[in-house]
Design goal:
Largest sheet: 9 strands, mixed
Strand content: 15-25%
Helix content: 25-40%
Shape: globular
Radius of gyration: 19 Å
Length: 328
């Protein structure tokens, strides 16, 4: 049963929270997935400083939920790990089957959008996410995304997906409040693959080095593998997610991988992270990555590894997928 079949199996009207819960339930039933799910009303909130001109009337501290679900997909065989912070929404109107002939728009929280779209540095009061979980310059823009549920022309629930940097606001005036709910639009309703790092172009010269570091030519490691940037099909989203084509590459960032390992406490993922750290250290890549982090973060003290995370205090939902287990 696919994700689309699962969320439509009851053949009844569902709200935004119910659809989100159905998606979480689907992955909970998969043997290749580890799901850490907390109370849906208990969000994982982070703080950020908005960009001008919003810092003058929003204030220097805005608190928003970083995502509804944090997806991490990894493959020990291919030495790849990807992640994306996905915010789930519901579009109330039916979208015709010929979606590419219609603009795909939906209502979202502008304060959260400002953070995700611009990939701003954050402060996590729970101490789980590093400050640069969105802003690290070697990540692609696929680090943050939107998943929008909607009814298709056959009255079946589907989900559109697009990375946050491509979602746009058409009005030619600044937002007034950080908590406003305004209509935004996808860049396209077509299926699009590619690679974007729009906000951090200065990092691009480093990317070929990072993404070509393996000594054995596994598929997807010694070449650029296009990431899924946009689709209005949940089937496409699920297929590409399980094939390691959704989210930014994070396998080179041991600091963040170690934090993620503490989050899930999955033996296979922890082993994957330890082996990645040893392998990258042997090739001299580990220190170079951390030098880039130190340059970006300036005088901020190094982040200590998270220990003894209490899921009841985290808020949000977290899904870890072992792509190798799917193939088996």
């Amino acid at each position: 049963m696919s994700l689309k079949q699962y969320i439509n199996r009851q053949n009844k009207t569902l709200g935004e929270v119910e659809l989100f819960d159905e998606m979480i339930g689907y992955f909970k039933n998969q043997p290749f997935a580890t799901v850490v799910d907390t109370d849906r009303t208990h969000h994982h909130l982070v703080d950020y400083t908005p960009l001008p001109p919003y810092n003058t009337h929003w204030g220097n501290r805005v608190t928003k939920e970083i995502s509804d679900v944090f997806f991490v997909v990894f493959s020990p065989i291919k030495r790849i790990a990807r992640m994306t912070h996905l915010q789930a929404k519901l579009k109330n109107k039916i979208l015709p089957i010929l979606a590419n002939k219609h603009a795909f728009s939906f209502t979202l929280d502008v304060g959260q959008y400002h953070m995700l779209h611009n990939r701003l540095p954050i402060n996590d009061p729970k101490g789980i996410y590093p400050r640069d979980i969105l802003s690290f310059p070697l990540y692609s823009d696929s680090v943050s995304s939107y998943g929008v549920f909607y009814l298709d022309g056959n009255s079946q629930y589907d989900m559109a997906f697009e990375i946050a940097s491509l979602v746009s606001y058409s009005k030619n005036k600044p937002y007034k409040f950080a908590y406003s709910q305004l209509i935004h639009s996808f860049a396209t309703a077509n299926d699009v693959w590619g690679y974007t790092n729009i906000k951090h172009l200065e990092a691009m010269p480093m990317l070929p080095y990072i993404h070509h570091y393996c000594d054995i030519c596994w598929e997807g490691c010694c070449e650029y593998v296009p990431e899924l940037l946009s689709t209005v099909s949940v089937d496409t989203f699920e297929n590409e997610l399980l094939k390691l084509h959704v989210g930014t590459r994070v396998d080179f960032d041991i600091t963040t991988l170690q934090a993620i390992a503490q989050l899930f406490k999955d033996e296979q993922f922890t082993s994957f992270v330890d082996e990645q750290a040893q392998w990258m250290d042997r090739w001299g890549i580990l220190e170079r990555i951390e030098n880039i982090r130190r340059e970006q973060n300036g005088n901020e003290p190094p982040r200590e590894n998270v220990q003894d995370i209490n899921p009841e205090e985290m808020g949000g939902a977290y899904i870890l997928i072992n792509a190798d287990a799917i193939e088996r």
